[in-house]
Amino acid sequence: MPKADLVLLHAPSVYDFRKTSIMYGPVSDLVPSSPIFEMYPLGFTTIAEFMERHGLRVRLVNLAVLMLSRRGFDVERAIREMDPVAFGIDLHWAPHAHGSIEIARLCKKYHPNTPVVFGGFTASYFHEELIGYDCVDYVVRGDSTEEPFTRLMFALKRGGSVADIPNLTHKDVSGAIVVNELSWVPDTFNHVKLDYSYSMRSVIRDRDMISALPFKGWLGYPVSASLTCRGCTRSCVTCGGSAAAFRTHYGRNRVAFRDPELLVADIQHISRHIPGPVFVLNDFRQAGGDYVNAFITGLKRIDFRNPIGFEFFTPPSEDFYALLDENLNDYSVEVSAESHDDAVRSVFGKGYTWEALGTSIEQAFKHNCKRFDLYFMTGIPTQTAASVLGTVAAVDELYSRVGDNPQLLPFIGPMAPFLDPGSMVFEDPERYGYTLRARTLEEHRQLLTQPSWKHILNYVPDAMTVDDMVESTYEAAVGINRIKARVGAIDPKTAAATERRVLEAQIAMARIDDIMLHDEPERASLLSAYKREIDALNESTVCEKTELNWPASANLGHVWNNIRLWFRVNLETLFPRLAVVDRRFMEGD
Ligand code: B12
Ligand code: SF4
User: Fold this and answer.
1) d(C-alpha 409, C-alpha 406), whole Å
2) Does residue 416 line the site of ligand 2, with CB under 6 A?
3) 27 CB under 6 A from ligand 1?
4) I need a surface site. Which of 177, 412, 433, 520 has the fewest CB within 10 A?
5) Ligand 1 centroid vs 498 CA: distance in angstroms?
6) Which residue's CA is the nearest one to ligand 2's atom 5?
7) CATH number of the structural domain 6-189
């Protein structure tokens, strides 16, 4: 296998989760990952593609997926056998605070002279604390690091200066922290490829499928994500990716949109090679009417037939659904209402009414929406346990409104494990009534190894206790599960299994509380003896994971296109001159 200049490593949330007994709870039930959070940031693929386009060789290794899928996978050995110019590790999501630093320590243990580079939202937020760890040499800050990271890689390869590389936090020869200006914040999102071409090429070139998988079950459910922008126009108070958080911590004053033609081209490329549904993240209506028309009619132009799902921040209008219906073959919608309670939703920062949402859902089905996923969250400012349970009754009424249509799929889960660093509530918890249990990166690292999700939470909500939050989340999940079974949105067997798991999870939480009353070392030994049962309860608690899945279909076109790609990549590997390289950063080679 050719030597890589950069190895990008994605760590599990907690290292080594295979040895610790932690009841993670339903923290990841509403995303495709397990509680190990094995999904790497999409940015790994854009960084890798950008660097390869400019003459560097990049290898992506999803250690979290490898550890999950191969029981005996030896992380230390895998790292010891790598020999790149630099390691890159993402600390995008705060729940990786533990695993990412431990993986960096292993990189340094076996390769003390190889630079370790960090990046992502959480790394950017905690950059000055993070660079203080011995195992971290550089942090590339911000939401668009392809260019500054590539400049850093060329400087590392050639031994050049890093003094004028934007967005970089580093240490000088005396060990003093140097913070370069956060000035690389592109106005558009057009400088990258988001069509999975890097991932497809690397799988063929490196003969290694598992290392590049975005999450454990991806081969059985090959969903792809498309991103319409970097940044957000809204300012939900608990969100670390809000307009306010971007402005304050990532240097972004306006949203960078991806040109709709490029977005259509990304989706066309994906659909030729990957049989699963495409999920378009970050409500594209933020970009305005012309953008919406160009994007949706563009999908019609390429005769896009795969199932496609859209995330919308507010309930769409009837005209909008009519546009989707006219141009698309199979579309689904996802809205996070957070609560049925208008007052709670308004404090959260989403200012529409439950009534307006109900009307929008009716209109969606009138215009042939295949499936409407509706998300609720617990732990929001002012939300009480009674309000959480009130969501169940509201969901029941909503179903009556749409004639018990099983294409409506509600889900509820906790805001966990953490309040987002950089969000308005994290910056000013007292104002929103929260009490923070952790502020620094190190405090978050420590929390992650606590024995259950109620101990791991980095906050105490204002209007209920943590115990109330845990209990009401589980109870509301059971309530919603029963309603979904009643209307036929899930089959009775799945519903019964979910209810049983929730009950077992409640018992396990109580047992862990009892164990916590013991002192060490007895506590550790009791927890360790309980590991097998805990692990069995760590996935699909509040709903069955497959309930999140949209339909997928492979056809002969996919097979043929992948065979063509296989030949092309192998030819380029044998004859590198065939690959197109932009030599902009390579001057001086
Ligand atoms: C899309 C999205 C998702 C997608 C992820 C798609 C993906 N694989 O990236 C899904 C829906 C799966 C998801 C899941 C989760 N998400 Co999310 N998500 C978002 C969202 C809406 C957009 C992110 C985005 O625009 N990314 C694009 C850019 C910014 O990132 P990027 O291209 O991937 O990476 C660039 C930089 O970050 C950096 N970078 C990243 N890694 C590295 C590594 C190195 C070495 C370097 C140098 C640079 C670098 O460079 C990249 C290229 O320029 C944001 C909200 C927002 N408006 O930002 C929340 C957000 C990022 N998610 C968040 C959270 C909490 C989660 C979950 C933990 C929620 C949960 N409990 O389940 C999970 C984690 C899943 C996992 N890892 O397994 C928080 C993070 C807060 C924090 N600081 O921790 C955010 C900010 C808001 C929110 N609450 O949803 N999410
Ligand atoms: S929760 Fe969604 S809509 Fe609200 S600020 Fe975050 S990314 Fe934007």
Assistant:
1) 7
2) no
3) yes
4) 520
5) 28
6) 242
7) 3.40.50.2300
Backbone angles phi, psi at 72, to 5 degrees: -95, 15
Q: Give pLDDT tens digits along the chain (589 positions).
A: 568 999 999 999 999 999 999 999 999 888 888 999 999 999 999 999 999 999 999 999 999 999 999 989 999 999 999 999 999 999 999 999 999 999 999 999 999 999 999 999 999 999 999 999 999 999 999 999 999 999 999 999 999 999 999 999 999 999 999 999 999 999 999 999 988 888 777 777 777 778 888 888 777 788 889 999 999 999 999 999 999 999 999 999 999 999 999 999 999 999 888 888 899 999 999 999 999 999 999 999 999 988 999 999 999 999 999 999 999 999 999 999 999 999 999 999 998 999 999 999 999 999 999 999 999 999 999 999 999 999 999 999 999 999 999 999 999 999 999 999 999 999 999 999 999 999 999 999 999 999 999 999 999 999 999 999 999 999 999 999 999 999 999 999 999 999 999 999 999 999 999 999 999 999 999 999 999 999 988 877 777 777 777 666 656 566 555 555 555 655 565 556 656 677 788 765 4
Q: Which protein residue has the closest C-alpha to ligand 1 atom 55? A: 241
Give CA separation, 202 vs 74, 151, 198, in Å: 22, 22, 6
Task: Tell me the whole-structure pTM to 2 decimals.
Answer: 0.95
Our mutation pick for probing the ligand 2 site, out of 232, 311, 345, counting the most ligand atoms within 8 A of Cβ, is 232
- Note whether 148 and 164 are within 8 A (CB): no
- 42 alpha carbon – ligand 1 mean position (Å): 8
CB 420 near ligand 1, within 6 Å: yes
Residue 229 DSSP symbol: E
Domain residues of the chain, as ranges?
Answer: 6-189
Cβ of residue 227 lying under 6 Å from some atom of ligand 1: yes
